[in-house]
Amino acid sequence: MTEIRIKVNGSVECLEVEPWVSLLDALRDRLGLTGAKKGCDQGACGACTVLADGVRINACLALAVQYDGREITTIEGVAHPLQEAFVRHDGFQCGYCTSGQICSAIGMLAEYAAGMPSVVTGSTGTPELGEAEIRERMSGNLCRCGAYNGIVDAIVEVAGETAR
Predict the structure, then answer these.
(1) For residue 102, what are the CA distances in angstroms to 2, 92, 111, 123, 129?
(2) Residue range 121-137: mean pLDDT, rounded
(3) Is CATH 1.20.1640.10 the classification given to domain 81-163?
(4) Taking the CB of the first residue and of the last residue of the chain, which one, N or C, has fewer CB atoms within 10 A?
(5) What is the chain's mean pLDDT, rounded?
(6) Which phi and psi (to 5°) does residue 50 adopt?
(7) Torsion sign, CA atoms 39, 141, 109, 91
(8) DSSP 8-state secondary structure symbol assigned to residue 148
């Protein structure tokens, strides 16, 4: 067992974990934070997305011991305009992917604001955060119900508000 200290949603947590325990399992099973979901457990669906020091990660692919001393934000610790925008624009249906979608969108907006390029951006600089750019940047998060249009509309709304 290895003892780790991580700051989760503003609270410092001390956990004893085996070296092979994923961050997702530590959050869900040891801390009772079940917002991040175990979808594929292979990093392909994004349902487990959380923020590590403000950067979006797939918690199912991260070992808990890697995040010793780091700050993790799960959907339970999020208070962001995207949450209300998702409701207004019907950006969810069954809700299984919603926590990962919202955490990913928060991280994506920060990446965009920092000027990080995407495939759509290429080497031409940072384009307007339009539909194609959002869809590319959010492509790591799947929605089996197909609520993509509402998700994009919610992100467009919030991105427009933060740009003002």
Answers:
(1) 31, 10, 14, 27, 17
(2) 79
(3) no
(4) C
(5) 93
(6) -135, 175
(7) negative
(8) H
Domain boundaries, the chain: 2-76, 81-163
65-70 LR contacts (CB < 8 Å, sep 24+)? 65/2, 65/4, 65/17, 65/19, 65/21, 66/23, 67/4, 67/6, 67/23, 68/4, 68/5, 68/6, 69/4, 69/5, 69/6, 70/6, 70/7
Q: Which fold has domain 2-76?
A: Ubiquitin-like (UB roll) (3.10.20)
Taking residue 142's Cβ as centre, other Cβ atoms within 10 Å add up to 19
* φ, ψ dihedrals at 51, nearest 5°: -105, 130
Element containing residue 155 per DSSP (H, E): helix 148-163
Could you give the C-alpha distances from 78 to 23, 64, 73, in angstroms and in order?
18, 20, 7
Amino acid 164: pLDDT: 40
pLDDT tens string 62-102: 999 999 999 999 999 999 999 999 999 999 899 999 999 99
CB 52 within 8 A of CB 22: no
d(CA 71, CA 54): 8
